[in-house]
Amino acid sequence: MTQTLETLAPPAGTYSYAFLDAFAKRELRRRTLKAIAIPGYQVPYASRELPIARGWGTGGLQISLALVGPESVVKVIDQGADDSVNAANLRRFITRMSGASTTTDALEATILQSRHRIPEEILREYQTLVLQVPDPEPLRAVESDSSVAHEMHADANYGQMWLVLYEQLVRFKQYVQGASYPALVNGRYMISPSPIPRWDNPKLHQAAHLTILSAGREKRVYAVPPYTEVRSLEFDDVPFMVEDQRGWVCLRTGAANKFMNEIPLADGSAGYELSDTGYIEKLLAKQRGIGAGPGPTYYDDEGNFYHDGIVQRPQDI
Which superkingdom is the protein from (predicted)? Predict the structure, then answer.
């Protein structure tokens, strides 16, 4: 008898619903509930093997698979884009394993998994934002020993992080840390809000939605419950500021005062395009007379944040 790959392969088994077995999902849900109960606290969990490499969103994917159901609506973005290879593959895997429907509309999604961005439109209650986190430890730059870092969190000993910010001000006259700018949750635990830009940090403050941050490689999950105080670190006399994008206008939509990507043009100059592709789709559809357009955004057309007193703009200094 001729042996082939088909005859040598073991009988195909069926996967558990949403790929993970029941014990794994139960553990992830319990750990997530603990993270919600203690805002900002890093809860360890047993990170499972998935058909993608660690470092490519396994932490966020495990949380999404533990939460997803047949009636869920899933949106996955990678640095704001729905059509990137990583986002498309994760979205395809989730819907194939769960039967959930997918969308590019941030306001339609019940579970929104993201790498490095929070959408421009204000997320609502009963929506869950799952952020992929490569390194959950905000103290890594000042303390490489994780056991010592855990003690510092237990004692709320964050003096070294304040020293880092002070040194930035002495050397550069401004805060220079871009992504993963540290924030204090509920006045207690310091978190790394994942590598989102400073532009997105204020969106976590008093947000109506639930935010879950998960690092698969580091086996840690932490959360920001709805309507929780989240303050980016700042000195009283030097306020936290978002990126300075004054004068930037989207080439495709003409929009301004939203977070944009810089695009090199053929003549050597730079153009700008909105990072949030789902928001672009809504703006373009509205310009063509299709649909009602996007919903309310965190930053209005003049660049004002929807919560007063949270964001200091460069032009206000």
Answer: Bacteria
Enter the DSSP assignment of 12: P
Kind of pairing between the strands at 230-232 and 183-185: antiparallel
pTM here is 0.93
Three-state secondary-structure class, residue 295: coil
- The rounded Cα 159 to chain-centroid distance in angstroms is 26
Phi and psi for 83 in degrees, rounded to 5?
-100, 10
Contacting residues for 174 by C-beta, under 8 A, at least 6 apart: 168, 241
Considering only CA atoms, which of 197, 22, 3, 15 is closest in space to residue 114? 197
Two tokens, residue 5: 């790959």
Give the class (CATH, top level) of 22-232. Answer: alpha beta
What integer is the mean pLDDT of 144-165? 95
pLDDT bracket for residue 310 (50, 70, 90): confident
* % of the chain residues with pLDDT over 90: 85
SS3 per-residue string spanning 170-232 = HHHCCCCCCCCCCEEECCCEEECCCCCCHHHHHHHCCCCCEEEEEECCCCEEEEECCCCCEEE
**CA pair distance 88, 161, nearest whole angstrom:** 37
Distance between CA 281 and CA 81 in Å, rounded?
Answer: 11
Largest CA distance in the chain: 81
Token pair recorded at residue 211: 């935010």
Work out whether strand 128-132 and strand 210-215 pair parallel, antiparallel, or are unpaired: parallel
Q: Quick one: which H or E segment has residue 280?
A: helix 277-287
Amino acid 15: pLDDT: 82
Half-sphere exposure of 38 (CA within 13 A, CB side): 13
Residue-range domain boundaries for the chain: 22-232, 244-304
Helix (H) or strand (E) holding 7: helix 5-8
Q: How far apart are CA 24 and CA 212, in angstroms?
A: 17
